[in-house]
Records
---
Amino acid sequence: MIRHVVFFSVPAARDLDEVEAGLRLLETNPHADRLTIRRNLKRDSWSQEVDFVVYGEFADEAALAAYKAHPIYEESIRRVRPLRDLRIAADFEA
C-alpha cells in the first residue's frame, strides 16, 4: 500500500472555500482506495501555514500513477494551483 499525504496553504482567506471544492473533486477519483480532504486544525505552531491536508491510500504505485493521470486530478490542479501557495507532498509504503 502507498500512502499519499499533501499539505496546502492558501494565502487569501477568501479563496479557502474554492480551494476546498477543487480539492474535494479528488475524492471522486476512482483509483484511490481511500482519499480524504480536511482543513487543518492548526493546533501546532509549525502547522499554522497549512490550510488543507489531503490523505490518500493506494493499492500500489500503479494505482497512484493512475490517480495522477485521471482527468479529475487534472481538473483539481486547474482549479487549485492558481489559488494555493505552499504544496508539500509525500508518498510512502505502508
---
Amino acid sequence: MFVARLAEDTRALLYGGDAVPGKLHGPAKIIDASLDVRSGGHVTFPHHAFFDLSQPLTVECTVWFDKQGKMPVFVSCGHWNQA
C-alpha cells in the first residue's frame, strides 16, 4: 500500500509505516491541503518494489477541475513520454 495524501507535504506512507519522500517539480505546490498543479508541475517518488506493475494495482484520486482544459495526467509509472 502506498498512500500520498499531499495535504501537508509530499511524504507518502508505505504499508508498515515507512515514509517515502516525494519531490515537487516546477510550479506544483501544496496549498489548502491539496496538490495544486494549475500552473503546471508534478510530484515524483523514488522507485519502490511496491510499484511492481506486473501485479494488480488500484489507484484512487480525488481531483477538482475549476475550468475546462486539456486533460492532465494524474498518475504515471516510469519515465514519462519515453519508450
